[in-house]
Write a structure and sequence with these properties.
The protein is α/β, with parallel strands linked by helices. Helix content is 31%, strand content 25%. It has helices spanning 55-62, 80-85, 106-111, 115-118, 126-138, 154-168, 184-199, 234-237, 240-247, and strands at 15-26, 29-40, 43-48, 70-75, 89-92, 172-176, 203-208, 220-225, 227-232. The strands form two sheets. The chain has a six-stranded mixed sheet with strand order 5-6-7-3-8-9, with helices on both faces. A three-stranded antiparallel sheet has the order 2-1-4. Residues 1-13 have low confidence and may be disordered. It binds adenosine-5'-triphosphate.
Length: 255
């Protein structure tokens, strides 16, 4: 994507997210161990690791949704939950997390991206409706805006969830497997949008266990296997020896 403009590692002054020695346990399972990492403005980072490597847990830590066993997480220089509640962090779940029977239209789902800004009782203003319209156009779903989200294809559903994140106008976007189960058109569109977001100065972190879509086009690859294996430019991080370490880690380890 914009690799030349964002060499790794990022200087501390740029950090949108800083993790320092973060360890997270889910009961007996050690999900993250002593992870220290910084994420800069204006970059696309691919968060790569096998199933169970801790990618979702890392996102949860950045959103302040999981207690830390040790370490600290700062987002925009403060506690993660403060940044999330202020709408500065958008999380995009996997497209298949949407229940087919979910009764909302695509437009209503995208409008949910504005809720943090609307407040509980405020009605959508023209600026909110414009932001929703713009987000729908950017993911090329304007024509399907009134359709129930459950009636969309996998790629279209993912694009609708991305539109919700775009409508939120967050500075930090965390995307969970946005390329899983999407068609080629959606894949190209999503990859192009991520590049544009980074050029606008936003930070984008994309989790994937698939090496064929994003990682070699990202600014950096964060290789995770419960511990941080490496964070570097794709050509370095995706070298066979780092990949072997990331994809062969013992899965049975417990705290
Ligand atoms: N709520 C939970 N309770 C118990 N164990 C959990 C919980 N959430 C995650 N884990 C465990 O923590 C580890 C890390 O899980 P996590 O979901 O963060 O990995 P992941 O890289 O996102 O995996 P995937 O690619 O399958 O989504 C795994 O061993 C998982 O089984």
């Amino acid at each position: 994507m914009t690799a030349a403009a964002h060499p790794a590692p990022h200087p501390e002054s740029d950090a949108v997210v800083s993790l320092d020695g973060v360890t997270v346990r889910h009961g007996e399972v050690l999900a993250l161990e002593d992870v220290s990492l910084e994420i800069a403005a204006g970059s696309v980072d691919a968060l790569v690791g096998m199933n169970g490597a801790g990618k979702s847990t890392l996102f949860a830590a950045i959103m302040g949704r999981v207690p830390l066993s040790s370490g600290t997480v700062r987002v925009f220089g403060g506690p993660p939950s403060v940044a999330r509640k202020a709408g500065r962090v958008a999380f995009m779940p996997q497209g298949d997390s949407v229940d087919r029977a979910f009764p909302l239209s695509v437009r209503e789902v995208v409008t949910m991206g504005r809720y943090g800004r609307l407040g509980a009782m405020r009605r959508a203003r023209a600026s909110d409706r414009d932001a929703v319209q713009d987000a729908l156009a950017r993911v090329q779903l304007s024509d399907l805006a009134e359709r129930p989200i459950g009636a969309l294809s996998g790629g279209q559903r993912t694009r609708a969830l991305l539109a919700r994140a775009l409508a939120q106008d967050a500075e930090l976007l965390l995307l969970d497997e946005p390329f899983a189960g999407v068609d080629q058109r959606s894949e190209a569109l999503i990859a192009g949008l991520l590049t544009q977001l980074a050029r606008d100065g936003r930070s984008v972190v994309v989790s994937t266990h698939d090496l064929t879509t994003l990682p070699d086009r990202a600014d950096r690859v964060i290789l995770l296997a419960r511990r941080l294996i490496t964070v570097d430019k794709p050509e370095v991080a995706l070298a066979p020896e780092s990949l072997a370490r990331a994809f062969q880690f013992p899965r049975e380890e417990r705290s």
